[in-house]
C-alpha cells in the first residue's frame, strides 16, 4: 500500500509542477501591461518603472517563475495589483463560499445519481428505466446557467422561497448560508447527476450479468440485498472515476453559476481579476483550483485500492 501511495503522490506532484509551468507561461503571453492597467495611461515612465520593480515584473521570466514557486511553497501567494493586499486573504474569503457550494453540489449529484442509476438498472427496459433515462437525457442537454435562471424565476420570483441571489454569509449561522447555496447547488448538480446516473446504470447492468450475482441470488439473498451489498460495490470503479472528473467540472462551473446568482465566490474573483489583469490573483486562484482537482483524483485513486485491492496489487 505504501508503494502504491508513493507512486500516486509522485504523479500528483509532477502534475502540479507541469500545471504551474503552463499557468505561468499562458498568463505571461497574454496581451496587456499590468502596470498600465493599474496606473492608467497617464502614468509616467518613472511611475511605471517603480510599479514593475515593486512587483518584480522587470525580472527575467525564469527568475519570476522560480520566485513564484518558492513563495507558493511557503504559503506566500503574492500581492494583488488591483487591491494592494496579500492574495491569500482574498482567495480564502472566496473559498469559504466556493468549496461548500462545490461540495454540496457534488453530494447532491452522488445521492441523485446512485439512487436513480441503481433503480434504473433494477428496472431495466421497464417504464421506470425509460422514464429515468429520458429525464437524464433532458438533464444533460440543459445548460447550468439557464437552469439556474429557471430556478430563480420559479423559487425566488414566483414562490418567494429563496432569494434571487447573494450570499447570507457564515457569520449569521450555517442555516442562512446554506439556504443561499441551495439553488446554485441544484443548478450545478442537475447536469452532473444526469451524466453520473447513466454511468451508474450501465456499470450496474454490467455487473448484474456476472456469475457471482446469480450465485448470491441462489443462496437466497433478496434482489435489493444483492444490488446494494454486492453489485453496487463492484460497479463503483467507473462511477468513482467519473465523480473525480465531475468535481473538477463543478469547480469550473461555479464561475458561471456565481455570476448568475451574484455569489461572491472564487469564480467571480477570477473573472474580476482577469478583467483587471491582476495576474497574481489569477495565478494563485488557478493553481489552487488545479491542486484541488489533482488532490481529488489522488483520493479517487486511493478509493480504487480500498474498493478493489486487486487494482492496487496490479498497479504496484
TrEMBL record:
This is ABC transporter permease. Belongs to the binding-protein-dependent transport system permease family. Gene3D superfamilies: MetI-like. GO terms for cellular component: plasma membrane. SUPFAM superfamilies: MetI-like. One of its GO terms (molecular function) is dipeptide transmembrane transporter activity. It is a multi-pass membrane protein. Residues 95-300 form the ABC transmembrane type-1 domain. The keyword Transport applies. The chain crosses the membrane at residues 12-30, 95-122, 145-169, 181-199, 235-261, 281-307. It is found in: Cell membrane. It comes from the Bacteria. InterPro entries: BPD_transp_1_N (IPR045621), MetI-like (IPR000515), MetI-like_sf (IPR035906). Keywords: Cell membrane, Membrane, Transmembrane, Transmembrane helix, Transport.
Amino acid at each position: 500500500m505504501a508503494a502504491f501511495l508513493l507512486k500516486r503522490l509522485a504523479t500528483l506532484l509532477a502534475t502540479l509542477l507541469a500545471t504551474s509551468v503552463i499557468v505561468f507561461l499562458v498568463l505571461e503571453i497574454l496581451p496587456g501591461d499590468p502596470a498600465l492597467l493599474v496606473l492608467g495611461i497617464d502614468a509616467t515612465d518613472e511611475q511605471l518603472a517603480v510599479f514593475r520593480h515593486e512587483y518584480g515584473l522587470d525580472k527575467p521570466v525564469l527568475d519570476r517563475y522560480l520566485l513564484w514557486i518558492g513563495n507558493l511553497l511557503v504559503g506566500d501567494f503574492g500581492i494583488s495589483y488591483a487591491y494592494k493586499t496579500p492574495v491569500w486573504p482574498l482567495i480564502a474569503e472566496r473559498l469559504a463560499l466556493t468549496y461548500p457550494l462545490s461540495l454540496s453540489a457534488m453530494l447532491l449529484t452522488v445521492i441523485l445519481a446512485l439512487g436513480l442509476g441503481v433503480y434504473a438498472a433494477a428496472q431495466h427496459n421497464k417504464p421506470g428505466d425509460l422514464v429515468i433515462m429520458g429525464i437524464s437525457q433532458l438533464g444533460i442537454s440543459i445548460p447550468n446557467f439557464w437552469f439556474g435562471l429557471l430556478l430563480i424565476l420559479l423559487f425566488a420570483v414566483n414562490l418567494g422561497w429563496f432569494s434571487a441571489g447573494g450570499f447570507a454569509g457564515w457569520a449569521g449561522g450555517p442555516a442562512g448560508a446554506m439556504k443561499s447555496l441551495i439553488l446554485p447547488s441544484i443548478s450545478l448538480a442537475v447536469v452532473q447527476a444526469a451524466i453520473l446516473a447513466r454511468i451508474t446504470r450501465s456499470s450496474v447492468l454490467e455487473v448484474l450479468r456476472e456469475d457471482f450475482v446469480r450465485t448470491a441470488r441462489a443462496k437466497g439473498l433478496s434482489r435489493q440485498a444483492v444490488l446494494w451489498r454486492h453489485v453496487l460495490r463492484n460497479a463503483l470503479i467507473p462511477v468513482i472515476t467519473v465523480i473525480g472528473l465531475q468535481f473538477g467540472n463543478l469547480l469550473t462551473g461555479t464561475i458561471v453559476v456565481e455570476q448568475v446568482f451574484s455569489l461572491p465566490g472564487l469564480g467571480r474573483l477570477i473573472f474580476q481579476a482577469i478583467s483587471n489583469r491582476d495576474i497574481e490573483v489569477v495565478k494563485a486562484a488557478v493553481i489552487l483550483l488545479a491542486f484541488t482537482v489533482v488532490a481529488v483524483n489522488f483520493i479517487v485513486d486511493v478509493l480504487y485500492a480500498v474498493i478493489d485491492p486487486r487494482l492496487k496489487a496490479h498497479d504496484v
